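In the lab's daily routine, each protein ends up as an entry in a very long ledger. A line of letters takes care of the sequence, but it says nothing directly about the fold. The three-dimensional part falls to structure tokens, numbers that each stand for a local backbone shape. The outcome of that step, for a single protein, is printed below.
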Amino acid sequence: MEKWLEGTIVEKRHWADKLYSIRLKAPVDKFTAGQFTRLALEIDGERVARPYSFVNPPQDEMLEIHFNEVENGPLSPRLAALEPGDRVWVSARANGFFTLDQLPGSENLWMIATGTALGVYLSILRTEHSWRQYRQMVLVHNVPYKDQLSYSEEIDNLKQRYGERFRYQPITSQERVDGALQGRILAALEDGRLESHTGVVLTPEKSHVMLCGNMGMIREVSAALEARGMRKHRKREPGHFTTEKYH
């Protein structure tokens, strides 16, 4: 049976239309960067729960999640309405295998996200272990509009700390933005812009790719990687890319 803890909202950030982050305190069990928790509220006499990845690294005392408010969704509109001091149920134990200890060795790690799936990579990138495991880390974030490119301060801190070892490439599909590629991840990968702008070559010999976000992106990019001779990673059959549908 799932164990629930009562958490307290400490801060809420409204990034853009229907795009939020909340920070909260709850004495959850130790987790591994890349894992997810479950949040719940009592709604009409029922505890309604949904999974959300941690944005914060495991060493932080404050928990953080990043989410979209889904119109008519069973939980997210109510999460978006919470304010500091409000309470929320949090699962005591994290779950998930989208973690670095599940991956084979590689020289470079590509972390490709759509929307709020960015959060899981920020948790991983802010652990020292990740930087000991890989020579270079590439973060790719695809959103429709500029104001959805969240967590710029945290990303700038990573740039300052790790220099050329960290490459960040935003992609916007619905408007032109300085420093961002325009379009979708698949197109930028297939026409060479993604590698050209990051300065990192994506090959089976030197790269592992993590894909997290909407299923359309995961299907398309997985197929493009397979066309390059890369195969999906499985525990019994080490491969070159790992996928997770974002919650």
